[in-house]
Amino acid sequence: MVESYSKAGVDIKKAENALSATKDLILSTHNKAVISPENGFAALYEINDKQVLASATDGVGTKLDIAISMKKHSTIGIDLVAMVVNDLAVYGIKPLFFLDYLATSKLEPEVFSEIIKGIVEGCKQAGCALIGGETAEMPGFYPDKKYDLAGFAIGLANKDDLIMGKDIEPSDVIIGFASSGLHSNGFSLVRKIIKDKGLSLDSEFDGSTLGKTLLEPTLIYSSLVEELKQKTIIKGLAHITGGGFKNIERILPDATAAFISKDSWQRPAIFDFLKEQGEIDEAELFDIFNMGVGMVAVAAEPEAEKIIEIADDKGPAAFKIGRIKKGNEEVSIE
Length: 334
Fold this sequence. Notes:
By secondary structure, this protein is of the alpha+beta class. Helices cover about 35% and strands about 25% of the residues. It contains 12 helices and 14 strands.
């Protein structure tokens, strides 16, 4: 139950119901080439007997408001790329190319340049080409100085190489890959807490400032997943974004459940700060934020050790955070 998020103006249940109501309309456009994983992170489209195209799209959400308030636009593009390509990485797919969309009231060249620099940096980290995009000036529609971003990526993979989670079974290990902080989710609640408590983005926090901590760019896991695919056997991956640890439910086969030990890693200080300032229930934190884990992998015990060793060497850090047991496709935080 994400009561705090609802009070911040984000009604997750209402959004889920709206999507469910349009499901039949969407499915009416599909043909036999569409591979549609239930609750999938990205869309898959079969182009021949052996290969699939994968596509993903996302935005940065209201983290943009923090960037605009701080007049710091150089890293928000990294967030944009990360939110998209990490959804492809869930299936073990590396992006080929990226496109961006920027909408604003009036284009400011210096701000635009900083945003593009961030997108370029994100594409370099992900190993994909920025091949195009669209910039829309919409005076009178967006408030002055405000802008919105969206991104789109396409990847190509062999069907036999897809990581789909179908072989996940009880006794498998759940490995968490560290996040850099909040990444790009939960910011409507974060902004409400800042407003309600009269917090300053310039205030000192954890050796930096609150604003800089909040703007820490989302980590991109594409290259790590690519290396892990070559050297280990991963059964499933989940991107911990909106909805927090419930995202793991999206990869669980029938009759399995994920049990997470919340004390098995050290979470960044920002999460306990938000818990205290926002008076957020502990369980609710895990339904909203990544809590210091940006992506999880599921693997058999022997492979888990190799995965952690490779991740610790390449970065980001990895740790065992739980187990797969028999259950009803749900996540329990213990």
